[in-house]
Amino acid sequence: xxxxxxxxxxxxxxxxxxxxxxxxxxxxxxxxxxVLLKRKDPRASQIAAxxxxxxxxxxxxxxxxxGTGDLPTALTLALAAELxxxxxxxxxxLRKP
Length: 97
Hints:
Layout (H helix, E strand, L loop, with lengths): L1 H4 L9 H24 L5 H22 L5 H24 L3
Helix pairs in contact: 2-3, 3-4
């Protein structure tokens, strides 16, 4: 239903703010995961799980919102950085304490 009712294009007035916010969350999640891992804190798995989800979401929206000329770059970043980092975070999240 939603796919049929949404417009194909739209103008977003706060686009850069949204992406800066997501990037800040990713930086905080990756930093927090690293710090907690170094301290051997079991809460690292929770931060890592949330960060993995954010990284997958970032890759998805980068690829699906990329213009024709930007699609190769978006795919490269998704496959070379965002998704491998998401897998690494998922491994941390799923490991036994």
